[in-house]
C-alpha cells in the first residue's frame, strides 16, 4: 500500500513538473516570436494634370499614352481662329484709342502755347481778363480729354494683352519630364476651360506615405534613412529617407472599446522619399512595409 502511494505521489510530481515546464516553454516562445514594429505605406508619385486654359476645339494632340516626354514638349493645341479675329478687333481698337489720345495731347500742347502768348499780352494789359479765363478753361478741359483718352488707350492695351495671352494658351507644353499616363480627349473635340486633356506622371519623383501611430512618431525625424520591403520584390530591400513628418493627425487605426476602457490611437502621415539609386521600379499604389525598428540616423 505504501509502495502504491509512493508511485502515485511520484506521478503527480512528474505531472506538475511537466506542466510548469510547458508553461515556461510557451512563455519563452512568446518572447521569441515578438513581431517587429512594421507599418504599411503606399507608393505615390508626382502627377501633373494638363488642362485646357480656354474653351475651343482641339486641333492637335501629338502625344500618346506611355510616351516619354521632356520639359517643353508640345502636349496639345486648340483652334486659334476665334482668338485671331478678336486679336484683329482689339488691335484696331487699340490703334484708334492711341490716335485719340495723341490728338488730345496735341491739342493740350497747342492751347498751352497759346495761353503762354496771351499771358504775356495780359501782363502788358493788351488782353482782357475774360479772354484769359476762357483760354484757361479750354486748357483745363483739354487736359481732361487727355486723361479720358489715356484711360481708353490703357483699357485697349489690357484687352489686347488678354487676347494675346489667350492666343498663347491655345498650345500647352510639358512643365516637366515624365510619362504620359492618360490622354482624356481626342482631336476635334470641343473642350471647356479647365478640362484635363493630358495626365503627366513623373516616376522619378516617388515617395511613400505611411501612417505611424502616436507612440512611434515621436521617434522619427526628417533625414533618417528607412529600409523598405515589398511583397512584389520579397528579396529586395529598398532605401528611403524621411522628408516630412506631419504635425496634423490623420486618422485612428485602432478604436477604443468600452470593455477595455482604452483610447483611440491617432496616426500621423510620414513621407519617405525613395532613393534614385534603386534599380527596380516601385509603381504607384504598391504597398510597402516600413520597419521602424531599423530606422537609421538622420543625415
UniProtKB/TrEMBL annotation:
<dbReference type="GO" id="GO:0015562">
    <property type="term" value="F:efflux transmembrane transporter activity"/>
</dbReference>
<dbReference type="Pfam" id="PF25990">
    <property type="entry name" value="Beta-barrel_YknX"/>
</dbReference>
<keyword id="KW-0175">Coiled coil</keyword>
<feature type="domain" description="YknX-like beta-barrel">
    <location>
        <begin position="208"/>
        <end position="291"/>
    </location>
</feature>
<dbReference type="InterPro" id="IPR058636">
    <property type="entry name" value="Beta-barrel_YknX"/>
</dbReference>
<protein>
    <submittedName>
        <fullName>HlyD family secretion protein</fullName>
    </submittedName>
</protein>
<feature type="coiled-coil region">
    <location>
        <begin position="94"/>
        <end position="152"/>
    </location>
</feature>
<dbReference type="InterPro" id="IPR058625">
    <property type="entry name" value="MdtA-like_BSH"/>
</dbReference>
<keyword id="KW-0732">Signal</keyword>
<feature type="domain" description="Multidrug resistance protein MdtA-like barrel-sandwich hybrid">
    <location>
        <begin position="47"/>
        <end position="200"/>
    </location>
</feature>
<feature type="signal peptide">
    <location>
        <begin position="1"/>
        <end position="24"/>
    </location>
</feature>
<dbReference type="Pfam" id="PF25917">
    <property type="entry name" value="BSH_RND"/>
</dbReference>
<dbReference type="GO" id="GO:1990281">
    <property type="term" value="C:efflux pump complex"/>
</dbReference>
<comment type="similarity">
    <text>Belongs to the membrane fusion protein (MFP) (TC 8.A.1) family.</text>
</comment>
<dbReference type="InterPro" id="IPR006143">
    <property type="entry name" value="RND_pump_MFP"/>
</dbReference>
